[in-house]
Each structure stands twice: as structure tokens, then as C-alpha cells.
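---------- Forwarded message ----------

FYI, see the Acyl-coenzyme A dehydrogenase record below. Original note from H. follows.
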Amino acid sequence: MMTLFILALLIIIVLFGVKNIRMQFITRPVFSFFKKVLPPLSDTEKEAMEAGDVWWEGELFRGKPNWETLHSYGKPTLTSEEQAFLDNQVVTALTMIDDYDIVQNRKDLPPELWQYFKDEGFFALIIPKQYGGKAFSAYANSTIVSKLASRSVSAAVTVMVPNSLGPGELLTHYGTQEQREHWLPKLASGEAVPCFALTGPEAGSDAGAIPDEGIVCRQEFEGEEVLGLKLNWDKRYITLAPVATVLGLAFQMRDPDGLLGDKEALGITCALIPTDHAGVKIGQRHNPLNMAFMNGTTQGEDVFIPLDWIIGGPQYAGRGWRMLVECLSAGRGISLPALATASGHTATKTTTAYSYVRHQFGLSIGNFEGVQEALARIIANTYQLEAARRLTTTGIDLKVKPSVVTAIAKYHMTEMSRDVLNDAMDIQSGKGIQLGPKNYLGHPYMANPISITVEGANILTRSLMIFGQGATRCHPYVLAEMETAAMDDNEAALERFDSLLLGHIGYAARNAFSSVFCALTASRFNQTPVSGETQQYYKDMSRLSSALAFMTDVSMLIMGGDLKRKEMLSARMGDVLSELYLGSATLKLFEDNGRQHDDLPAVRYVMATRLHKAAKALEATLRNFPNRPVAWVMRALIFPLGNHFNGVTDKMAIDLVQGMLKPGPARDRITFLCPEFEGDTSGIAEVEAAFIAQFNCKQIHKKIKTAQRNGALPKKMSNLPLFQLAHETQVIDAVELESVLAADKLRLAAINVDDFSSL
């Protein structure tokens, strides 16, 4: 037996150790196999891959995350200028917002708010200072949009669009000096209002399929014949289009007459066109779920523009797809996650308050476990949203373009927002469904599907982008192997592939061993950067990271190019990556907050959820893996003792809710994006005031309850007579009576809803 083992070992050493033998019997046949099974990269896919950067998601995807790297990214902070803007201009804007009037009556922002946004630079957050902009960080941009969104989605969207994918960002990164000097000061001052026309009836999430065309031709322009483009387009869903003065346009550029060279199809190109230019048509408004932000259509028929109107000049002809992919991080990583996080902060602030002041069966409804189950999800999702918002904007502020991370943020954060609002509606019930000035949930609830569908529909983001792009970009070998397989020089390709193959085999073996070893040892030997309760979360995430890396290698080997078409399978593996990213963000927020003890209930709940969902996604992939024998082997290596990531317990939910049904720093940390300000008469301020007043009367209510249990006061009596009787029987004194009467008045105001003589 030992002889056979030694012989087998020697054969393996010779096969892999002697290059000529390895090349003949391993590298060459494997290379031939790889050429057949590896998915080919289309030109648009290749551009997308090259445009994005690999950031923290690369660590998670490769099976051995360096947690010190995560901690080294630093804590996102605001400059004194950014903080002053939030304390002054943003607060002033909030006092000017009456969202019920904006949505239900005006169908637009009031003129004075439009002007204030322009005058105070709300449309210039990302524009460099030399052109009159603010040059604020991604974190500041996100915080500003979130605070506005806590009071009005329509106002927030109006501000976020000029600071997201559009002329301002594209000009800043790619514009010629002449273009920047002409347009950026106008955009910064609000003299020019921008929109960007990308989506059309035949091109939504598949932006690469844009049918709109620009044909290179010669035509007279401003009295002389120039080389330019004849454009035809039909776009829809374009935010700010109805009020825009300058239009960013994406189109397919073609040169059928060879006026620029021998290439006819130049590719997607972006140009900047004044909306009063001949032939430009701004169409009618859309009605996006009754929200009041401007959204509509634009068309153009035989619109001639000079080549100099291409963003970046003629040298950027055909480079629009890469430009768009690189700049999508603002919409996916800043703006839409900011809206989602605002929903969480608002729902947590109002629903904890409402659950405390709303009584049924003689108790605050927050004491009922059925309510606590939903309320715990709201609080935990909000903690997660805030964590993901901070980590994602940190990456953007580090000047990386983490396209996979921003896709994760866009999909999961907007879906969490939907869950948060559904749970908040369930708890607040009638308070949430009766629209009026008091209602702070109705408009965000109505608007939520907008975030789900824009900047890449969520279904396609999950099923195609997160894993599809992540597997290729984040893997240390696959992209290089795909490039090698496409090389024209077969011998040079074979030589390069040989070195890649050895590294890839070692990488796969390490992840397979790590996966089974961690499973058998409960991850206790994995490294962790911290001590205390949270250290096990780092260890468990490292285990699941190695399992994902191992499963990815096996899946790509078995299915090759077919994996792209197995969307349900690849989406589940993308879910594992996403859960690991979200868990990383949670642990980093806990560290950034100074490891606050009162954050631990939220961290426990969130991390139990993340680990459970990641393991569940791995299990679902194994259950549906098409090659059953391979699936059995993977299961034995990933879950040799079964899946013991069981998710949250009832105690976790109860502990989390009980800590949040009182004022305190932990509650403040995940509700600060729903701010309070002097003179606020909104429904949010109303329910918060009632909550504080009721909490401050806690001991008085305790006296009354004790007297009821002792028989000194009747057990069933409405509040006002009960309070009066408690005073008369000296259970409470005059000052206490005044306090409970005032608090109860606020409570009744908070639980009441608007009614109207007519609608």
C-alpha cells in the first residue's frame, strides 16, 4: 500500500514538476478544454470589465479576506465645510419642504425651493471648486440626499440627478477644457439644468443595445460646412428632462462613408446638446408613481451637431460605454442607496416611536412579540443600510470605481428599503395608508419601486451583474486565462497559460482544503483582527468566503460559458458575495462607532442574518447544481457536518427592540438622517415629540399601573378620567397630572390621521 502511495506521489511530482511533461500532458489538453468552456467576452463586456476596479469585494471573492485591509479604509467623515452645509443649507431646505403639497397639489417643487437649490449649490455637489462647485465627498453627497429624502423623495431626486450620472460628472471626468469652462460654471450656478438621456423604449437595462444613432456627415453649421453628426433618438424615463436646458445623450455612432477612418460602427458615444438646439424635442411628462420630480421624454429627428459636442471631443467617439460604466457608481453607489437608507432611518425613527405611543389591550404595541418581530427587522435592516452606505461611499471616496460593490449596494439596499417600508406599514397600519400632511410613510412607500427599476433593474442586477462581473473581475486567474485563450499566438498563449494554470490549481486546492477544514473546526483557527464577541463573525465569514471561491472554480470548470445562462444558479452565488460584503460593512460600522455596547444587539441580529442567508444561498446552489456527483463532493467539503448557520433567534429580536424603544445614542445613530429642526410641524416631529413625552412619563404611568393592580384605581377606564382620578386619590401629584395630560394630548395627535371635507 505504501509503495503504491509513493509511486502515485512520484507520478504527480513528475507530471507537475517537469515542465516539458507538464506542458504535454496537462497544460496543452487543459488549455484546449478551457478554450471550449470559458465564456467569451463581448466587446461591451470587455469594456465593462476594464472600466471597473476591484476593491474589497476581491478580497471576499478570493477565499482569504484580509480583515486588516477592511479596517485600514478609515472612517468616513465630513469636512467642516460639508458639515456646515448640512447644518445650514440642508436644514433650511428641509424647512421649505411640504411633501404633501409638493406631491398632491403642485406636482412640482415650489419655485422658491427650486431657486434655493440653485442659489445654494445643491446642483453643484460634485463639480470642482474652480468651476464654482462644492467638490464634496461621496459620503457628504450621500448624507445630503438622505436627509432630503427623509422628508421628500421628490426633492431628493431633484437634487441627486445633477450630482449623479449626467453631464456634470461626465464633463468633470472626460470633458475637454473648453467644454468644462463653458458648461461647468453654468451647471454649478443652476443657470443650466441638466438631464441625461440613456434609456429608450428598446434599451433599458441592456444599455448596450441603444438603437439611437448618430451618423457622421458634413453639414452647414453657423454659416460654414463642418464635420458632425446627424442624430435621431427616442428616449424615455429621463429625470429632469421636462425642465432641462442641456441634454446629455447616449447613442450609437456610425461612419458609413468613412469620413473618420475605415471603421463604420464606432460604438456608443455621449454628446452634450442644448435643449433649444434645432430639432431637439422635449416631450411630455411621465407620472412616476405620483411623485413630483420632473421625468419625461425627449426625441430628436435629424439633429445636426458638430463633432466638438461629443463629451471629451472627437477622440472620445465610441468610448461612451466605458464612460457610462465608470460613472454609474454615483447612481448605484451613492444616490439610490442614499434614498434607501433614508427610508430606513425614517422608518426606524417613526415606527419605534409609534410602537411606544400606540396602545392596544392596555399596552404599547411594541410590547407584543408579533410587532417586535417586524420591528426588529426594521431596526436591523436600517443598521445594515447605514453600514453599507458608509462602506460603499468610502470606496468611491478612495477614488476606486468598484462596479461590483455598487451593483451589490444598488440591488440589496433598495430591496432592504422595500422590506423596511413593508414592515413599517404593517406596524403603523392605518397611520401609514391615510395620505395627508401627517403621513410620513405613504410617499416613500409609493416611490420605492422607482429605485428598484432604475440604474439597472434589480432582477437583472442580481442575476447577471453581481456574480457575472464579480466572478471574472475578482478571480485572480480567470480574466487573465480568458485573455490568454483569445491570444493569436498559440505558443505564447500556451506558455502564459502554463504559469497561470499552476497558480490556479494551487488557489483552488487551498480553498477546497480551507473550506472543509473550517467546517470541521468551526472556523476556530481562522485569523481575526479583533477580540470579543464579534471575532467569531470574522472567522465564519472567512470560512464562507473560501467556500464561495471553491464553488466558483468548480462551477466555471463544469459549466464554462453556460454558467452565464444559468442565471438562478449564478445569482445565488452572487448572493453569497453580497451577504459577505454586507456583513463586512456591518462589522466595520461597529468598529467605526467605537465598538459601542448598545450596538451589539443590532450587530448580532444583522450578522446572524447575513451568515444564514450566505449559507442558505450556498445550499441552494448545491441543491440545484446540474452535475449531481460534483454537487455531492462540494457538499461534503463545504458542509461536511451540515449547515448550522440558523439565523436569528426570538431573543435576538426582543433584545434589539427593547433597546430601541427608548431614547438613546444607539437609536440616534441609526435615525440621524431623519433630522429634527426648530419649528418642525411634520408628522415625523409630531410622533417623536409624543414618544419623548410618553417616555418621560414612564414612572408616572408605572405608579398608575401599580395602583390599578392593587385595586386603588379601576383597571378599565379611559385615560383622561383615569389620570384625574389618580390625582384625586393622590396616586400622582399635580405636576405629574399636568405631565401625563400633556403627553397624552401629544400621543393622540400622533396616532390620529388626516381627514378631509372633500378630495
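H. also flagged this: The first strand starts at residue 194 and ends at 197.
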